[in-house]
Specification:
The structure holds three protein chains of three kinds. By secondary structure, chain A is mainly α. Chain A is about 70% helix and about 0% strand. By secondary structure, chain B is an all-alpha fold. Helix content of chain B is about 70%, strand content about 0%. In chain B, strands 1-2 form a two-stranded antiparallel sheet. The radius of gyration of chain B is 23 Å and the shape is globular. Chain C is an alpha+beta fold. In chain C, strands 3, 4, 5, 6, 7, 8, 9 and 10 form an eight-stranded mixed beta sheet that branches. A two-stranded parallel sheet of chain C has the order 1-2. The radius of gyration of chain C is 21 Å and the shape is globular. Classes of the chains: A mainly alpha, B mainly alpha, C alpha+beta.
């Protein structure tokens, strides 16, 4: 499919002097990004690492990390991972479908820009306003709850549903997960050249075969990458969950917040250790993603 | 492989725009069209019913629509929202200026560094804003770089923090966009025509990344307008802190403001998208076979 | 119902009586003498202090919502009387945020607060952390001893009582006591105003519930048990009760400090109508304290602010916000409280105010066990 031009960089092994100079040239291109990241990202994160190894007086200690074994905290990590995974996969699937619908699904063109711009706003509609919006909709006296109960005779709450549960929280999280998926996967869907579909049709393939053999393999690295993004997005969310469950469903971000800022519990060093745990989990998922991406990118060669 | 200038040759970018000229027989109507309408409808309901419920709540205070009247006449709201938008635009500019060249360069010249750069751009995801802002305060709230001393310094710090927050989204969007265009060929062709690096970035790469950059820009604007923690700790009266305080003493106005700001931000996004629709004369590559 | 009155309360009353007698003989310091029953004299700033504050130019406050104890009026009046500007940080912040702000801005700058208003337990904690600057206001002697640090590092400012904020459109029979909340009439109605692992107000609600349930100030376990039962009965709504959720009917009964509930009633202006009920038993008081930061960029402005808050005018403005000011006994004895304001203050007879040790112990117990005791049933 793609005839690659000869690679520009000195990837074909070291040779004589030009390669050394080329390498240092290339690295210069990363300098602005490198400096900026160091100043505003790496240094604050360093505080995080150092702080997690200190106690309140500044002495070195590993107690914060051993504190992570506390069952309440393990539970918090479990909840966070579960909620993030569910909303990442669920959000990924429906977000992808939604994006595909407006881009390639034969809908009127204005719907595409409407959905894109709406997604821009909705992807960060979180915290108290979002929680309240859902309370007004699906709370015990919410619009939809009342409508279903009085209009259609379906009483959600007596059948066991509650907005103030993990399921409810996941449902609310989707409000910013779907749009995020839509926005980030759109360029990839655009990259599905129409010629490929036409070629596949001409060769006699049906829709299923097209998807299985052409579209999905091409989209997989982007899909995976975006799902990881969604996972991280959900993992880091805090304000919405806080408002909706008043801390009864313990997730890591709320525990961190209460350690760093609470009126009562006050052990910022434990907070740093918890955050380090988050970094480890995210790094693990990024590593998994990189592995999968390298495998699936072979399809593009 | 064809490279076309001037009058637009039909190519890959047209399909991105959705403007593919009809050159063969009309495509057979895919069975899925109904399915896609249903998908869209479900999405529409999911997104709009909660907004509708918020609207109903905001109208509850008599006289009818009073909460909206208070909203429109609230000068503090305009100030906070305007301030947030200005900060958002500055953040987008900074983020694009930093990320696009970086992503491009990494893809082109330093592919082995890509996992590391990706990791750095994903760090802001993992580090909770509370901890990021604590780290920033620890670093910049005293000499030598005493940014928090002045209001301008705090503003600068906030914009830089927001640029950092936008990294994951902007990088992912730009990277996805770069994946679907053949930057090697474009770059080589441009270089063979004598273009300098800035020219390549500005005239060749950026236009081809329009969709991706717009997606990243949308996300960044939304992040900045909705961001609460960092603004609060730096003492900046942006929109999100304002909204939070409002809710404590006037929930109806808070609901009205939520909806109004949702609408305004949506319109702003639409404007950005419209402006970004830009010039038509650009170099295109008609798909690599 | 507690069988013994708390010591602090006795001391407060006793101190009040003694000090009234002393005040009749002593002078008033920098503040002007009260003019009598018609109302307190308005505050005029001490000239020397004002001059040095003016060279600083402004005051930086933190975590002072305008409708919390009528800080809105206090801030406006202070600006008008002194000509200083006020830089208000983080109105939504909690006590932890205020202390963090001091610690993180030790070199000054825009983010460094001059003065803080924090929960009682933060007073001694901050002294131990070494971040406070002592100052004794001119009306120092009229502040009860139990409510201040002897070296002047922190001093109580006001207190409120845990109450039920009831949306009477949704709740037809208004509950009168903690035990009423368990009734099936109040299914899915009761919520806390915060997260009990984070918010002082929420912890106090849990503790207060326990007081009427066989608990004491020394043992808050009864409070946890109460909420476990409340949750099992289906009456507890595990969402953070906000003005919006009270108004929408999602949490028609919210457990909040009297001053918050009453100011909600004011701001909602009858849509919906709110009734604030101080429960018959388990009347629990929570006190806040003022302090000046050691690293205050404007120390003289800070002192001037304190003089204002502890003047008669300042204290009465707090009463306008439904908070019971710490010099209440003194003001009442000198008969300087305007009648209309006195009428609006909720009746808090029988209030128990916990000591520092009790607060620390109860907070520890509640924050550690909330999720496991009550959360177990919330899936």
């Amino acid at each position: 499919m793609t005839a690659q031009a000869a690679p520009l960089s000195g990837q074909d092994g070291p040779s004589a002097r030009p390669v050394r100079r080329r390498f240092s040239w290339a690295w210069l291109g990363l300098l602005p990004f490198g400096i900026f990241s160091t100043l505003f990202l790496v240094i604050p994160t360093a505080y995080l690492v150092i702080g997690s190894l200190q106690d309140k007086t500044g002495a070195f200690t590993l107690a914060n990390y051993s504190g992570l074994a506390d069952p309440g905290i393990v539970d918090a990590y479990g909840n966070s991972i579960e909620i993030s995974l569910v909303t990442a996969i669920g959000g990924g699937i429906f977000g992808f479908l939604l994006a595909y619908a407006v881009i390639n699904g034969g809908l009127p063109k204005f719907l595409r820009s409407a959905l894109m711009t709406f997604s821009g706003v909705a992807s960060n509609f979180a915290g108290v306003p979002l929680a309240l919006a859902f309370v007004f909709t699906l709370g015990r006296v919410g619009l939809l709850t009342v409508f279903l109960r009085d209009g259609l005779g379906i009483d959600m709450y007596s059948s066991g549903f509650s907005l103030y549960s993990k399921i409810g929280l996941e449902l609310v999280y989707m409000y910013f997960q779907f749009p995020l998926m839509v926005l980030v996967i759109a360029p990839a869907i655009d990259g599905l050249k129409k010629e490929w579909r036409e070629a596949s049709d001409v060769l006699g393939a049906n829709s299923y075969q097209y998807w299985r053999r052409v579209a999905l393999p091409i989209l997989t690295p982007s899909l995976l990458g975006t799902v990881i993004l969604l996972f991280g997005n959900a993992f880091g969310a805090q304000a919405t969950a806080y408002q909706l469950t008043s801390g009864l469903i313990r997730i890591v971000t709320i525990v961190i917040s209460s350690q760093m800022r609470g009126d009562v519990l006050f052990n910022p060093n434990l907070g740093y250790a918890l955050a380090m745990g988050m970094v480890v989990i995210m790094s693990a998922s990024i590593a998994v993603y990189s592995l999968l991406q390298r495998r699936s990118e072979r399809w593009l060669r | 492989m064809t490279v076309g200038f001037g009058p637009r040759a039909p190519g890959a970018l047209d399909s991105i725009e959705g403007n593919a000229p009809r050159r063969t027989k009309p495509r057979p109507r895919r069975l899925g069209s109904i399915v896609w309408w249903i998908v869209f409808l479900l999405g529409f309901l999911y997104f709009f019913v909660p907004l509708f419920a918020t609207l109903i709540f905001s109208l509850k205070r008599p006289p009818f629509g009073d909460a909206f009247v208070t909203t429109v006449t609230d000068s503090e709201l305009l100030g906070a929202l305007g301030y947030s938008f200005v900060v958002a635009i500055l953040t987008v500019i900074g983020s694009v200026a930093l990320i696009v060249p970086t992503a491009y360069w990494v893809r082109l010249r330093l592919p082995r560094l890509r996992p590391y750069v990706e990791f750095v751009t994903l760090l802001p995801f993992v580090v909770p804003p509370v901890i990021l802002v604590f780290g920033l305060l620890n670093t910049y709230s005293h000499p030598p770089v005493f940014l928090t001393q002045t209001n301008i310094g705090n503003d600068v710090l906030m914009v830089c923090a927001y640029i950092v927050l936008s990294f994951p989204y902007m990088y992912r969007a730009v990277d996805t966009g770069l994946r679907s265009i053949d930057i090697r060929t474009l770059t080589e062709a441009s270089q063979s025509l004598g273009a300098s690096w800035p020219r390549i970035m500005w005239s060749v790469i950026l236009p081809n990344l329009r969709v991706a950059i717009l997606a990243g820009a949308f996300l960044t604007v939304a992040i900045v307008v909705g961001e609460f923690t960092i603004a609060t700790f730096l003492g900046r009266q942006t929109f999100a802190p304002f909204l939070s305080i409002l809710g404590d003493h006037d929930p109806y106005e808070q609901a009205a403001v939520t909806l109004v700001s949702f609408g305004i931000t949506w319109i702003a996004m639409g404007l950005i998208g419209f402006i970004g629709r830009g010039s038509r004369d650009r170099i295109q590559v008609a798909g690599a076979h | 119902m507690t069988t013994t009155r708390s010591l602090p309360l006795l001391m407060t009353l006793g101190a009040g009586i003694v000090l009234v007698a002393a005040a009749c003989n002593g002078g008033g310091g920098a503040t002007t003498a009260p003019t009598g029953a018609a109302g307190a004299a308005s505050w005029t700033p001490d000239a020397a202090l004002l001059a040095s504050a003016k060279t600083e130019g402004s005051l930086t406050t933190i975590a002072l919502p305008h409708n919390w104890c009528d800080y809105g009026d206090l801030l406006t009046n202070f600006k008008a009387k002194t000509g200083l500007t006020i830089n208000e940080l983080n109105p939504d912040g909690g006590s932890g945020d205020e202390v963090n702000a001091i610690k993180q801005n030790q070199s000054g700058g825009q983010g460094a607060p001059d003065v803080i208003d924090v929960g009682l337990s933060f007073g001694p904690k901050s002294v131990a952390d070494g971040i406070l600057a002592p100052y004794k206001v001119s009306t120092w002697s009229t502040i009860p001893d139990s409510a201040k640090d002897k070296d002047g590092n922190w001093y109580g400012d006001y207190y409120g009582v845990m109450s039920f904020e009831v949306n009477t459109t949704v709740v037809k029979t208004v509950p009168a006591d903690w035990s009423d909340l368990m009734k099936p009439d109040y299914k899915a109605s009761v919520a806390l105003a915060g997260d009990p692992t984070v918010s002082n107000q929420a912890i106090s609600a849990v503790w207060a519930a326990g007081l009427s349930n066989g608990g004491t100030l020394d043992n808050a376990q009864a409070g946890l048990d109460y909420f476990k039962a409340l949750n099992a009965a289906g009456n507890f709504v595990p969402v953070i009760g906000k003005t919006a959720t009270v108004a929408s009917g999602e949490t028609p009964i919210r457990l909040a400090w009297t001053y918050n509930a009453l100011s909600d009633n004011d701001s909602l202006k009858g849509t919906p109508p709110i009734k604030v009920v101080v429960p018959k038993t388990g009347i629990f008081g929570g006190m806040y304290v003022q302090a000046i930061s050691k690293y205050a960029p404007h120390p003289n402005a800070a002192k001037l602010w304190m003089e204002y808050l502890y003047s008669d005018e300042g204290q009465i403005t707090w009463m306008k916000g439904y908070c019971t000011p710490i010099r209440y006994a003194d003001l009442k004895a000198r008969n300087v409280i305007p009648a209309d304001i006195a009428a609006k203050l909720p009746d808090t007879t029988g209030v128990v105010l916990p000591t520092l040790d009790q607060i620390n112990k109860a907070s520890d117990l509640i924050t550690k066990n909330w999720a496991t005791t009550v959360g177990a049933t919330v899936k």
